[in-house]
């Protein structure tokens, strides 16, 4: 899986996968999902299933 945030290269298949990186599913609620999509700042079409956070 790959992070949906613009500029983020986190991918759980990568050898350099950072310990402490967590992936979150986008909310099912369409209104909240829209907020998350806007916060990703992507202009292209993308798979908005996962977003990550490095701790």
Automatic annotation (TrEMBL):
Residue ranges annotated for the THAP-type domain, each copy included: 1-55
Tell me the GO molecular function terms: DNA binding; zinc ion binding
* UniProt keyword list: DNA-binding, Metal-binding, Zinc, Zinc-finger
Keyword Zinc listed? The answer is yes
Keyword Zinc-finger applies: yes
What name does UniProt use for this protein? THAP-type domain-containing protein
